[in-house]
Amino acid sequence: MIIEVEELTRHYGNVKALDGVSFGVEEGEVFGLLGPNGAGKTTLMEILCGLRRFDSGRVNVRGFDLVKDSYKVRGSIGFCPQETLLYDLLSVRENLAFSASLYSMSRKKFRDRVDFSSKVLGVGEFLNRRVGHLSGGMKRRANLAASIIHDPPIVILDEPTVGFDPTIKREFWELIKSLKDSGKTVLLSTHDMYEADEICDRVAIMEKGKIAALDKPRVLKETIGGEPAIHVRVKDTQTKKALAILKEYGGALFGDEIQISATKPLEIMTEVSNKLSSQGVLTEKIEVVEPTLEDVFIKLSGRKLTEETA
Amino acid sequence: MNSIIGIAVKDIKTFFRERGTIFWTIAFPVLIMLLFTAIFGRDIPFSANIGVVDNDHSPLSASIITGLNNTNGIFTVKNFTDKIEALKELNASSVRAVITIPKNFTLNLTMTMPAHVMMAIDETNPDVARLVRDGVTTFLTEYYKGYYHTAYNATYLEPVFVTEEQAIVHEKIGYKENIVPGMLTYPLLFSSMVVATGAIVFEREKGTLKKIRASPTRPLNVLFGKTLAALFQTAISIFIMGVLAAVLLGPKLNWNVPLLLPIFFLGSINGIAIGLIISCVGRAPQEASNAATTMAIVLQFFTGMYFPIDYLPTYLQQIGRFIPMTYAAQALRDIMIRNATITDLLAPITTLSVTAVVLYAVGVLLYRRWVEK
Question: pTM above 0.80?
Answer without folding.
Answer: no
